[in-house]
Each structure stands twice: as C-alpha cells, then as structure tokens.
C-alpha cells in the first residue's frame, strides 16, 4: 500500500514539474511576441444570423480592421456586405485598436449586416 502512495506522489511530482516547465515556456513566448503594455486577447465573432462562430487571438494594440480582414478570409460572403460590429451593445470603430474600442479578453463581437 505504501508503495502505491510513493508511485502516486512521484507521478504528481512529475506532473507538477512538467507544468512548471510549460509555464516557463509560455512566459518565454509571451515575452518574445508581446511588447511592454501589450496583451494577448481571445476574441469571438458571432453574427446575428448565427452563420458566424469564429474565434481569433489578437493583441490589444492591433487595429480592429486587421481582425475584420481575418474574419472575411474565413467568411468571404460578408466581405461584400455593409456590416457593423457590436461589443457589449456598443458599435465598434474599425479604424481604432481593440483597446481603443474597449474590447477585453474573451469578449464576443456581434456582426450585423445593414439591409440594402
């Protein structure tokens, strides 16, 4: 019985060490790719018609128009429509950064199409 506890403790110790190694590795990547003041955000796009369900990662300093371009690469039918985007009920300005648009990590952005 005591031998089983030692095996479990060794396994737990190995997992903890592996997690610590991975955390250090993640920190290296963050420091390499992010400048001071930058944060990596997860942004989710949905559409009013429920045809879009798209998640993307972006820096808080990126312009919204860059994300919009990525969205249209994935969903090209919306490229030729007159669209607007909302976050927490407020309309976004595509010429401003995510931070300037007050977009936070894990925010859901809603795409709406103006009727023609």
Largest sheet: 5 strands, mixed
- Distance separating the two termini: 74 Å
Q: Which structural class fits the helix and strand makeup?
A: alpha+beta
What is the β-strand count?
A: 5
CATH topology of the largest domain: Ubiquitin-like (UB roll)
Helix content: 25-40%
Top CATH class of the largest domain: Alpha Beta
- How confident is the prediction overall: mean pLDDT? 90
Q: Could you give me the name of the CATH homologous superfamily of the largest domain?
A: Phosphatidylinositol 3-kinase Catalytic Subunit, Chain A, domain 1
Radius of gyration: 21 Å
Count of DSSP H/I helices = 2
What general outline do the C-alpha atoms trace? elongated
Enumerate the spans where pLDDT stays under 50 for 5 or more consecutive residues: none
Report the β-strand fraction as a percent range. Answer: 15-25%
Strand order of the largest sheet: 2-1-5-3-4
CATH architecture of the largest domain: Roll
Describe this structure in words.
The longest helix is centred in the N-terminal third of the chain and has 32 residues, at 2-33. This protein has 2 domains: 1-33; 40-113, Ubiquitin-like (UB roll), CATH 3.10.20.90. It is built from 2 helices and 5 strands. The chain is 37% helix and 24% strand. A hairpin with a 2-residue loop joins strand 3 (83-87) and strand 4 (90-91).
Provide a concise account of the structure shown.
With 116 residues, this protein is α+β, with helices and mostly antiparallel strands.
